[in-house]
Structures are given as C-alpha cells and as structure tokens.
Amino acid sequence: MNTPTNTRSLAERAYRIRRYALQMGEIQGQGYIGQALGYADVLAAAYCHSMQFRPKEPEWDQRDRFLLSHGHYAIAHYAALIEAGIIEEAELESYGCDDSRLPMSGMATYTPGMEISGGSLGQGLPIGVGIALGLRHQGIPAFVYNSMSDGELDEGSTWEAAMSAAHHQLSNLICMVDINNQQADGPSGKVLGFEPLADKWEAFGWHVQRVNGNDLAAVVAAFDTARNLTDPLPRIILCDTLMGKGVPFLEQRDKNHFIRVDPPEWQQALAILDESFHQGAAA
Ligand SMILES: Cc1ncc(C[n+]2csc(CCOP(=O)(O)OP(=O)(O)O)c2C)c(N)n1
Ligand SMILES: [Mg+2]
After folding, report:
1. CATH class of 10-282
2. Tens-binned pLDDT, residue by residue, of the chain (283 aa)
3. Which of 7, 77, 96, 273 is deepest in the core (most CB within 10 A)?
C-alpha cells in the first residue's frame, strides 16, 4: 500500500519531490527541471494519496501501474519514486551517471517502479490501453495511471488509443496530462492548437476533469472522483501546471523545455524552496 503510516502532509511530500528533482538536476547541471517542479503536485497526489502499491514489492501483481509516457520527465518520476519509498534516497547521487539505475530518460528494465520505457511520445496511452485490457481479462482490480504531456496530444497514436479505450469501456484507466503549455519548439498552443481540450476528450467518450495541477486539494479530489466513478468510461484529468513552480527565477526562465542552471543557482533554488515550504508550514 502507499505507505499508510507516513504522516507527512501531501504538501510536504510535493515539496520533497521538488527537492529531490533539484538535487538530481544539480548532479548533471541541467535537465527537465521546470517540468519536475511543475508536475510535483500531481505526482505527490498520485503516489502519496491515490495509487495502491507496495514500495518494497514493486512487481506486486495487484499494484496500480504508473506509465511515464513522456519519458523525458524521468527526473520528476524518480523523485516521486524516492518519496514513495520505491527507490532509496541515496540512489539519487547516481542520477544520469554511467551504470546508474536512474538514466536521464525513463527505462523500464533499469528502474524499479518504471513500468515502460517512455520517451517516444504518444506510446503511453496505446500501451496503457493494452495493460488495462489485460488486467481486466485477468480479473485484477488495479488501475492504470497513464501520464502524458501536452506535447503528446500532437501524436495521432494518442487519439487512436483514446477511441479504443472508450470503445472497450476501460474504467480502470486514468490518464493525466501535464498542460504546462510548453514543448520543445515553443508554447504548445502555438505549435499545434489543442483547445478546447475537455470538449475533445468528452467527444471521444471519456470522463473529463480539468484542474489546476498546482492546487493539491483539487488534484486529490480529481483522483478520488476518477477512482470512485461507477460509469464505464476511461477517465482523464487535465492538469494545468506552471513550469518551474515554487522557484520564481525558474518559473520565468525562457525556453524552459531543457535548462542549464548555473552552479550557484541550484543552492539558491533549494533555499527558496525550503524557505517557502517552512513559511507555509508555520503559517
Ligand atoms: C515521437 C516523438 N517525436 C518527437 C520527440 C522529440 N521531443 C522530445 S520532448 C518533446 C516535446 C514534447 O512536448 P512536451 O512533453 O509537452 O514538452 P515539455 O512540456 O516537456 O517542454 C519532443 C517533441 C519525441 N521524443 N518523440
Ligand atoms: Mg508540455
């Protein structure tokens, strides 16, 4: 189970996920840092509130499966896996190094808790449909949590799989989309307009929620609704997030798809994060 004895608040767990991501980023001096900071609240709600798993038994057959379709978010995912107790904290020191189990893009065969090798965008949902069908055939009452980025909405395979999920009434499939309105070539809406997004997914036969992905209470409520719904529909939670959330000078960084951060800035970023968390905790 998802560490029921852990008494830390979800806000603290999201803060710790952001912290781990910055610590790993500092080791390489660069990375997909803005995404990790922006998506940390969704990951905290998924791993520390919603999903069912056994941290010390990552292959438990009844576990909920988290698919990181956007494999370049691996740094964010590793941070969540550490906070969830699936990976030891000490392992973050090896991030991106030769022979590490934490390569810069997610690899299923390397890392406990990494269900698929994502990164070729648009593959997570098709794979998720297959896994959700397989779980249902086997009578395993687990959910598939398929995580996608807004850039993946440009992929035709995503929409084929969306149709298929609705056709097969995959009510054990929960999708999250990180809508940070950013991708490698610029703002997502300018690369390829995707709105009105909720209407599109509804038209494809999904149960749709759109939330502020940096509002923990809203994200938690959306996960609860998605799990408890009795309608035989696949579920999607569209999460609007802010890249770099929690570290203002990274929130405002230009071209923040992949950033290099100067050595002193890592410690500044950690200090800002620590200060704002402790101020919030004291309030
Ligand atoms: C099929 C495929 N096409 C292109 C790429 C190259 N690529 C890597 S990340 C990325 C941007 C995708 O958008 P998004 O994940 O929303 O970007 P972010 O929010 O991380 O900036 C692209 C096009 C890829 N990984 N896979
Ligand atoms: Mg994006």
Report:
1. alpha beta
2. 454 446 689 999 999 999 999 999 999 999 999 999 999 999 999 999 999 999 999 999 999 999 999 999 999 999 999 999 999 999 999 999 999 999 999 999 999 999 999 999 999 999 999 999 999 999 999 999 999 999 999 999 999 999 999 999 999 999 999 999 999 999 999 999 999 999 999 999 999 999 999 999 999 999 999 999 999 999 999 999 999 999 999 998 888 999 999 999 999 999 999 999 999 877 7
3. 77
Return the bridge partners of 186, or none.
183
Cis bond before residue 196 (omega within 30° of 0): yes
By three-state DSSP, how is residue 152 classified?
helix
- Å from CA of 181 to ligand 2 middle: 5
CA of 148 to the centre of ligand 2 (A): 9
SS (H, E, C) 92-123: HHHCCCCCCCCCCCCCCCCCCCCCCCCCCCCC
Burial 135-172 (b: 16+ CB within 10 A, else e): bbeeeeebbbbbbbbbbbbbbebbbebbebbbeeebbb
In this structure, which ligand is nearest to the CA of 154?
A: 1
List the residue whose alpha carbon is closest to atom 23 of ligand 1.
Answer: 184
Listed by start position, the domains of the chain span 10-282
Q: Whole-model pTM? A: 0.97
Ligand 1 mutation pick, 105, 117, 257, max ligand atoms within 8 A of CB: 257
**Paired tokens of 7:** 């008494």
